[in-house]
Amino acid sequence: MRPIHTLVVHCTATPENRPHTVEDIRRWHKQQGWSDIGYHYVIYLDGTVHAGRPVNQIGAHVAGKNSGSIGVVYVGGCDTNMKPKDTRTPAQKTALRQLLSDLVNKYDIKTLVGHRDFDPKKACPSFDAKREYADLIKGGSK
Ligand SMILES: [Zn+2]
Q1: Catalytic one among 11, 39, 61, 85?
Q2: CA of 105 to the centre of ligand 1 (A)
Q3: How large is the average pLDDT for residues 98-118?
Q4: Confidence (pTM)
Q5: Which of 20, 24, 96, 135 falls 20 to 30 Å from 42 in CA-CA distance?
Q6: Do the Cβ atoms of 40 and 53 come closer than 8 Å?
Q7: What is the DSSP string of 69-96?
Q8: What is the Cα–Cα distance from 116 to 130, expressed in whole angstroms?
């Protein structure tokens, strides 16, 4: 297994309440010329967690930080005008926290942030993941 020390939270940047699947995202990413879906886990509107790219493979979700990280994405992140918005359903919030907690327990995670913490030009994931999940990391995210 590759060394994993970072979790990065994303949104799909799709309008609220519009369901999308792993296959949709895989198709979009392949259209960009990537080998597979860029994220490792996808959280649907109903809170179900779906596997994307296998965790033992390096993802394609954050510039310069893919090698030691896992990419987790929730479906949504935009309002109907495609403006950034925290559109997480209650089920997605519950599932996201549980998944991140499980991953922190499974791997030696030192950093848990949102995409925008690595790339301030981005709004992704449309909420402050670093702050919301700081309690999952012992001593806070570094
Ligand atoms: Zn992102």
Answers
A1: 39
A2: 23
A3: 97
A4: 0.96
A5: 135
A6: yes
A7: EEEEEES-EE-TTS-B-----HHHHHHH
A8: 10
Structural domain spans, the chain? 6-132
Residues 29, 40, 85, 115: which is the catalytic one? 115
Å from CA of 139 to ligand 1 middle: 25
Q: What percent of the chain has pLDDT over 90?
A: 96
**Ligand 1 centroid distance, CA of 38 (Å):** 10
State the average pLDDT over residues 98-112: 96
Task: Indicate if 39 belongs to the active site.
Answer: yes
| Active-site residue, 115 included | yes
Distance CA 75, CA 18 (A): 8
Confidence (pLDDT) at 42: 98
Q: Is 29 a catalytic residue?
A: no
CATH of domain 6-132: 3.40.80.10
Q: CB atoms < 10 A from the CB of 30, how many?
A: 12
